[in-house]
Design a protein that fits this description.
seven-stranded parallel sheet; Rossmann fold; alpha/beta; 8 helices; 253 residues
Length: 253
């Protein structure tokens, strides 16, 4: 069994996941970097002397295969997820909603279910789930994503109740506007101009490292301290609706 504490990070191939893998490695964890894109993962794992494992959180078999190769797990960071599309509910595309629910909600359930025995056996386990401010609020054009993040938020709350009395902390980190290379680009179907417009004129949107730092902080609290929920936004964003751009305050891009 690894002498180092072991952290599993899903969606580790880029953005918040990759930054979190680095942050936890700096905290002394052996980090299992899990995602679908093995080329990127291998580079990251090399850099932080961790481990790269191919994982598709939408597949029970894939999740079970990962769980089966881990002798020790102290921390699980459920980060895999994302948004697809900005259509109104009236124009919703089934496949987008199905993918968002499969990754953001079922993925959290599958990973938590599969790693719970090891997390409990560690004596001081921690599950951090990265949801979103979209998990506690709604906005036009965000129906599928907000539904998925509300779902993940509900799973986390349920899990905290179910694990009460067991040595596993259940933490939720809810980021607001975070500028990463892929989040808005994926949501906007690869349109870089539209993706850039989401952050245009905003003075310092959060970056992946800001959120990773917050995640690592929650994990580094003493084991009896459970940060139930941590909402993190840039100072320029007061709500999903209210963003300061170029000195004036307006809505979403
Ligand atoms: C991302 C935040 O405002 O785009 O999780 O829904 S928002």
């Amino acid at each position: 069994m690894s002498a180092k504490r072991v952290a599993v990070v899903t969606g580790a191939s880029s953005g918040i996941g990759a930054a979190t893998a680095r942050a936890l490695s700096h905290q002394g964890f052996h980090v299992v970097c899990a995602a679908r894109r093995m080329d990127r993962l291998a580079e990251l794992a090399d850099e932080i002397d961790g481990e790269a494992v191919e994982l598709d959180v939408t597949s029970t078999a894939s999740v079970q295969a990962l769980a089966g190769r881990l002798a020790r797990v102290d921390v699980l960071v459920n980060n895999a997820g994302g948004a697809l599309g900005t259509e109104l509910v009236a124009d919703a595309r089934d496949e987008d909603w199905e993918t968002m629910l499969a990754t953001n909600v079922l993925g959290v359930m599958r990973m938590s279910r599969a790693l719970l025995p090891a997390l409990e056996a560690s004596g001081n386990g921690t599950i951090v789930t990265v949801t979103s401010t979209a998990g506690v609020g709604v906005y036009e054009g965000g129906g599928g994503y907000t539904a998925a993040k509300h779902g993940a938020h509900a799973v986390v709350g349920t899990l905290r109740l179910e694990l009460c009395g067991k040595p596993v902390r259940v933490i939720e980190v809810l980021p607001g506007m975070v500028q990463t290379a892929e989040f808005s680009l994926n949501r906007l179907r690869g349109d870089q101009q539209k993706a850039d417009a989401v952050y245009a004129g905003v003075d310092q949107p959060l970056v992946a490292e800001d959120v990773a730092d917050a995640i690592a902080w929650t994990i580094s609290r003493p084991p009896h301290v459970n940060i139930d929920q941590l909402v993190i936004r840039p100072i320029a964003q007061a709500s999903n609706y209210k963003v300061a751009r170029n000195g004036s305050v307006g809505g979403r891009a």
